[in-house]
Amino acid sequence: MSDSRELALASKAWPFEEARRVLKRYEKAPPEKGYVLFETGYGPSGLPHIGTFGEVARTTMIRRAFQEISDIPTRLICFSDDLDGMRKVPGNVPNQDMLREHLQKPLTSVPDPFGEYESFGHHNNAMLRRFLDTFGFEYEFYSATEFYKSGQFDEILLRAAERYDDIMKIMLKSLREERQQTYSIFLPIHPETGRVLYVPMKEVNAKDGTITFDDEDGREWTLPVTGGNVKLQWKPDFGARWAALGVDFEMYGKDHSTNTPIYDGICRVLGVPAPEHFTYELFLDENGQKISKSSGNGVSIDEWLTYASSESLAYFMYQKPKTAKRMYFDVIPKAVDEYHQQLRAYPTQDLAAQLNNPVWHIHGGDVPASTLIVPFGMLLNLASVSGAEDKEALWGFIRRYAPEASAESHPDLDQAAGFAVRYFNDFVKPTRVYRAPTEAEREALVELRAQLAAYDGPVEDEALQSIVYAVGRDRFDPLRAWFGALYEVLLGASQGPRFGGFIALYGIPETITLIDKALAGELV
């Protein structure tokens, strides 16, 4: 066994812990199907969102971890539930009146309101695939419509008809009494209207593989459960899909967790072991409310990518997936800087530490070098004091600070400079609040100005930090009150960078001018 595999088998990183649970399923014999199957599900009633990214990114991390500890081949399926009936018209699409005429039809039978694809379901599936491809995920795409209509699901659907009573027993326990009277695991698709019907069954004929029911007008119909004539209600569909595909692992949000015994029970009734699960906590907005697609609170995927890289988002997703996390704009700069700190640490670490480093899991072991030589938080402050309107203005300071740097040699830095200007103008500028210094702070600022004016040493972070530190050490207890004053008086912010590094980047003469403006009351 290689050192890498041995260390991976002992790693405490959560993707390795999950991968070991999946491997344990096959400690006695390899899978008969010849591979281990990871799955993520997607309800294509709307556009892909940040939760979709999180689910596929985290499942990919576990799949990569599995590939490190086992030679069993793997597959990742992204399954779209596009045979679901359209229950309501989404508010963010055109041709609302036209869509209302097609309520309750499967999404792949609803015309595309954008007029680009053969159906609304096909449009949303294309958006999902484009979304996943943008991030370079490796996956196979499955459509529920094709899965039902092609016959791939027929064997399990016939078995569900045979074991109908056993599956209904599982389902009825979870339903209120009035719902129990009309509930069926099968939803027929009306042969004339094409709508998905929620009607009770008059008969389920296991021998013929058919169901008999009355439609809303009281007419009786008998349909085969196979060939896409009937779909399963969503909870039975979950467990039956696991059985049909032989799924080994699927993760989902905490809001699904109470259904896990139902999904598992149905999968087992259908004769297949239930997969391993991983339940992640939901994302919250800055007020602690659950992020929702419909209310638009929190950060969308497009918004994150407007201000930071997809790798920084993957880093955020990696952190403590079983802890509820607030996901709003203030977390972006922190995620960017922490991601690059981990990149810089990676080459200095031994193999065990590398396997525990989030960037190993983000990049599948092929970890790039960071070229972000100025922290994102520092770039934000630089944008703030310089009033930069574009990234070229920041590069004027960066080139003086690091003459060897260029957009070509430091692409991370170039990208971050552009993001920093955008983030500053959209979030920092509108909320900046400067204050006047107290008498003690004014005296310290005058001293700092004098020391900077007299300084003739190298313009380096540590040397300048020592000056800032010495001025504050004799005057402030605790010392953090001095640094807080610098941020609030000079930067209009409640927190900020190492100030010596900021002076080195912004420039000593420029910092002296900034102090003069603060002392003259021009910043408030």
List keywords for this structure.
elongated, 3-stranded antiparallel sheet, alpha/beta, 49% helix, 12 strands, Rossmann fold, 4 domains, 5-stranded parallel sheet, 524 residues
Task: Characterize this entry briefly.
The chain is an alpha/beta fold and 524 residues long. The protein folds into four domains: 3-175 and 233-280, 3-Layer(aba) Sandwich (Rossmann fold); 283-363, no CATH class; 376-431; 439-519, Arc Repressor Mutant, subunit A (Orthogonal Bundle). It is built from 24 helices and twelve strands.
Question: What report would you give on this structure?
Answer:
This protein has 524 residues and is an alpha/beta fold. The protein folds into 4 domains: 3-175 and 233-280, Rossmann fold, CATH 3.40.50.620; 283-363, no CATH class; 376-431; 439-519, Arc Repressor Mutant, subunit A. 49% of the residues lie in helices and 10% in strands. It contains 24 helices and 12 strands. It has helices at residues 3-10, 14-24, 50-69, 96-100, 120-134, 144-149, 154-162, 164-172, 177-182, 234-245, 260-269, 301-307, 310-318, 331-345, 351-356, 358-363, 376-386, 391-401, 411-428, 439-454, 461-473, 480-491, 499-506, 508-519; strands at residues 36-42, 74-80, 140-143, 186-188, 201-205, 210-214, 220-224, 230-232, 249-253, 276-280, 283-284, 325-326. The strands form 4 sheets. It has a 5-stranded parallel beta sheet. A 3-stranded antiparallel beta sheet has the order 5-6-7, with no helix packed on it. Helix 11 (260-269) links the parallel strand 9 (249-253) and strand 10. The longest helix is centred in the N-terminal third of the chain and has 20 residues, at 50-69. The mean pLDDT is 93.
